[in-house]
Amino acid sequence: MTAFSVVIPAYNEEAGIAAVVEAVRAAAPGCEVIVVDDGSADGTASAAAAAGATVCRHPANAGYGRSLMDGIRLAANEVVVIADGDGSYPVERIPDLVAKLEEGFDMAVGARQGTQQYDSVLKAPARLLFKFLVEFTVGARIPDINSGLRCFRKSEVLPYFPDLCQGFSFTTTLTLIYKLTGKFVAYLPIEYRRRVGTSKIRIVRDTLRTLQYIVEVIVTYNPLKLFLLLCTPLGLLALAAAIAAVAARQPALWVASSICVAAGFLLFGLGLVAYQVRR
């Protein structure tokens, strides 16, 4: 099998990191395992090192995406696998993901099954929103937009680092960029387990940050889709106002309908300009 490196970001994961490292080494003996300790206040670094991982330490918490980027830069192999340090992903499936790259895919993703990934009722609406935005932009169904178990080639992902989120949205924006640039992505169904320890996601802050990065990626790689999405409500309002004008015989509603149509054309025109600038 192709040689590969496994990068695991970890923040206060002392309780589970050793088991994850040992499971990776058991599934793929001889692979390089890099744990990026993102400013942990507990014994995450020492536990990872004792389990046989190479440890990179941040002096302060810098974020999930930043940890992955630093680990990917350190990886000695061209093929890189990323996994979480909380034990929620079945790392024994890593060889299956790497095998997909050997078949010619640019990225292989472990697509989580069931509802365990929605471990909080507060997270579910945000994830469904992001899924809709990503699928609408790429024009295709995506089984799992933000799975943290995936593999890719180092040389292909490095050029995208300036556009990738340094927080929890790293995987979402990576999925979006790969799809928008025409790369081949394989999805393998995987079991998703209850994590060890507590989640580090802050709902409001990380939701807003994810939305920001998704919009930035869409504007950079496919701006027409974003402007089309913004024009759709205006078109629906114009139609509703026109129907109401006919039904209620209110000429003033035709003015409202015309304004919505004009605003829609202006927005779409801006989208065309953004598309030409991008090219």
UniProtKB/TrEMBL annotation:
Keyword Iron-sulfur: no
Keyword Magnesium recorded: no
Transmembrane segments: 226-247, 253-275
Protein species of origin: Aquisphaera giovannonii
The gene coding this protein: arnC_5
Lineage top rank: taxon: Bacteria
Record-annotated Glycosyltransferase 2-like domain positions: 5-153
InterPro entries given in the database record: Glyco_trans_2-like (IPR001173), Glycosyltransferase_2 (IPR050256), Nucleotide-diphossugar_trans (IPR029044)
Pfam families from the UniProt entry: Glycos_transf_2
EC nos: 2.4.2.53
Source lineage: Bacteria, Pseudomonadati, Planctomycetota, Planctomycetia, Isosphaerales
The protein's name in its UniProt record: Undecaprenyl-phosphate 4-deoxy-4-formamido-L-arabinose transferase
UniProt KW keywords: Glycosyltransferase, Membrane, Transferase, Transmembrane, Transmembrane helix
SUPFAM superfamilies (UniProt xref): Nucleotide-diphospho-sugar transferases (SSF53448)
A GO molecular function held by the record: undecaprenyl-phosphate 4-deoxy-4-formamido-L-arabinose transferase activity
